[in-house]
Amino acid sequence: MRQSSVLPGIIFLVVGCSARTVPVQAPAPPVPQQSAPVDSLPPLGARNNPVQGRGPFGEREYLQRLRCRDGAAPAFVRNGSVGAGMDGHILDVYSVTCRASGQSAAVYMDMYHPDVRERRAVPGFTALAELPARTAPGCPPQVGPTADSSAKYIFNYLEVETPARPLDLPAGPIEAGFATFVAVSFVVDTAGRPEPGSLVIADFVEAQARAAAQQAALKLHFTPASHHAGCLVRQGAGVQFQFK
């Protein structure tokens, strides 16, 4: 269980704080400035023509749909925010890299467009209409070459129709005799319970806090993820507990 990485595609729900990290719409944007005519815009993904995304989760969904010239999925990392774009919104910039070919690009994104789903690709790349696992047929969805690989696949929240949702998060900090935060990622099974063998906690967490977080995580209940109507699937999830 002691690993320093976390499961991909995880949203961490913060327990014991006033704020919870859950998929929400982005805050209200500033008053838009007048946009330039479409035919005068620079290439898609440039600072003056950013990709329009549906919040931070929409940004990731777009980037996961990009494909390199060789058809491979690129790696991407958020470099941070870079100030206002042409619409007056704060922009994010991502480095997108194709490992095999060395192809790379800086992609500027504007997340303040909750009703827009960009289907065009930035120059040099192509864009899938959907994430492959999202449109996989069958139940379990046939995401791999064999039924066995598909049954073992761990979906992320962008690849399912209805993500797993917690039912019984603690209402406040958990009494433990020590004060700390601990992030735990895990797989929610099709019964809505964290799989014990899937728990991941960073190596730097002390043993006492690790044990308390493991115990708290295994008590949680979720509504299981649904890939499509009537098809429940395993999904990665995460929680950050606060102890006091």
Structural overview:
The protein has 244 residues and is of the alpha+beta class. It has two domains: 12-22 and 135-243, no CATH class; 38-124, no CATH class. 11% of the residues lie in helices and 26% in strands. The protein is built from three helices and 13 strands; from the N terminus they run ββαβββββαββαββββ. It has helices at residues 55-65, 147-151, 207-218, and strands at residues 12-15, 51-52, 66-67, 75-84, 90-97, 104-110, 126-127, 165-166, 180-188, 222-223, 225-228, 231-233, 235-243. A four-stranded mixed sheet has the order 2-6-5-4, with helices on one face. The chain is globular, with a radius of gyration of 20 Å.
> Unreliable runs, pLDDT <50, ≥5 residues?
1-5, 18-36
Shape: globular
Strand order of the largest sheet: 2-6-5-4
Strand % is 25-35%
What is the average of the pLDDT values? Answer: 87
**Count of discrete domains:** 2
How big is the Rg?
20 Å
Helix content: 10-25%
Please give the largest β-sheet: 4 strands, mixed
Supply the number of helical segments: 3
| Gap between N and C termini | 24 Å
Q: Would you count the extended β strands for me?
A: 13
Please state the structural category. Answer: alpha+beta
**SSE pattern, N- to C-terminal:** EEHEEEEEHEEHEEEE
Primary descriptors:
244 residues; alpha+beta; 2 domains; 4-stranded mixed beta sheet; 3-stranded mixed beta sheet; 13 strands; 26% strand; globular
